[in-house]
Amino acid sequence: MGTHPLLKVENVKKYFPVGRAVFGRSKQYVKAVDDVSFTIDVGGSLGIVGESGSGKTTLAKVILRLLEPTSGKVYLDGVDLFSLNNKELRKLRPKMQMIFQDPMASLNPRRKIMHIIGQVFKTHTSIGDVEIRERVVDLLEKVGLTPPELFLDRYPHELSGGQRQRVCIARAIALNPKLLIADEPVSALDVSVRGQIVKLLLEIYEKHIDEIAYIVISHDIALIKSLCKDTLVMYLGRVVEKGEVRRIIEEPLHPYSQMLISSIPVPDPEIARNRKRIPIGGEIPSLINPPKGCYFHPRCPYVMDRCREKTPSLINVDDRLVSCYLYSE
Length: 329
Ligand code: SF4
What we know:
The protein is α/β, with parallel strands linked by helices and 329 residues long. The chain contains eleven helices and twelve strands.
């Protein structure tokens, strides 16, 4: 496995304007993603975790330029994605793919599976129909839809939720992407098939480990742990902690991470006894008018005066980055 950075995200912001500037009051913005930076090496896997409204999905869409950024830079294998024009971006699209939460919504209900996956090759390659069919058959086998011939002529509504997500995964990996982002990939599925899809995602990641950067977005840090090595904890558009998932689960530093970890059911009573429990409480503040200072202060059991005044920077603490005055001078 190589170790050079494949994905570099630098100070990315995405602000959505809300309402108009009126006399005496400047224009307001929802700061959905506020100054996020990270790097993923070739073969690296990063989870992005947080409650809904934390900016996870918006960040992913900005990285892929499905949404235009407000500012910042993103480099994929050295290519500055935010400087590409539409034509250049279209050419690069197959190299950065996203698997969405709801497979039914991301598949055209009027097209058969052969067409849905085959279209990727039609749009981005010059190969002929016979070879396209062979590639689709091969992909269906890879994602466990066997025998493939049974699925080629079916419509999405004729498949189960798990089978539809397999089709989405097949389409996403069709042209060997360098960046694969899975956004809540199992949360719309029955509990009985979640484990199978997690296993498939893991197999695909391991198979392409020499060429891929992998991001998994979820509100569930236990899922992130089964799919990724590192994680980024987001709260109201900002990164509050970043490090190895295993370490963050064992010993979360930021009070918000502690809150998230508290919500994981623990089968082992010994671990449960040792775990610092912080109940998830309080309302998530408005993104239009977030609190001054540390955004988490209205919900934090350790809040101090200075937390209400100034945002803590992300600093190195042991083996990770954390943004909290409990760990700074
Ligand atoms: Fe809590 Fe203050 Fe740390 Fe924010 S900076 S998480 S309010 S202790």
